[in-house]
Amino acid sequence: MGQKLPETTLHRLDVQGWDNVSEETLADVAPWQRLAYGLCAVLAATGTALASPVILWCLVPFAALAALFPVHPFDLIYNHGIRHLTKTGPLPKRGAPARFACGLGAVWVAVTGWAFWAGHTTLGYVLGVSLCCVALLVATTDICIPSMIYRAIFGSPKPRQEAPSQG
User: Fold this and answer.
1) Distance CA 159, CA 59 (A)
2) Residue 89: which H helix or E strand, with range?
3) Which one, 78, 82, 121, 133, has the greatest CB density within 10 A?
4) Tens of pLDDT along 63-80?
5) pTM: predicted TM-score of the whole model, two decimal places
6) Residue-wise pLDDT tens digits, 119-148
7) Count of other CB atoms within 10 angstroms of residue 140
């Protein structure tokens, strides 16, 4: 507790829709909000490497649920398990930009699975590798391209207010 996030990281998280969450809360859980993206990247990479529509299509419901609800299904791994071991707080609810990203991901992974199923292997690999790159980018740097698209369409997050100094 009492950690401060670098301005760049804070801005990237705000773009994802965490702009209504206190900086202190984010500093505590920021690394763990990446878990869902990392798991999605691993599963998508596995499905792509194996050219397996079944593996890819198994990921679709998770991405779709993450688009519909403010808690990603993979956040539950952290919220109901890992956080008790790390003595950190629960992940805050995800904002509209992150849910938009998951919705886009659900469509993307479904189409990638279809490409492999339909025999369009090159298209499947192009879609799968690009999907994995986008997921790995957010899982490692907090740069979320779909959230940036959302913000370009619906507006940027408001600047954070400085916390009043304790004096």
Assistant:
1) 35
2) none
3) 78
4) 999 999 999 999 999 999
5) 0.90
6) 999 999 999 999 999 999 999 999 999 999
7) 12
User: Could you tell me the two tokens for 48?
Assistant: 């792509």
Closest-CA residue to 143 (of 11, 18, 6): 11
Q: Which of 82, 87, 75, 81 is nearest to 18 (CA)?
A: 75
CB 28 within 8 A of CB 3: yes
CA 60/CA 151 separation, integer angstroms: 24
Query: 19 CB contacts (<8 Å, ≥6 apart)?
Result: 13, 95, 157, 158, 160
The DSSP symbol for 74 reads T
**CA proximity to 23, closest of 41, 38, 11:** 11
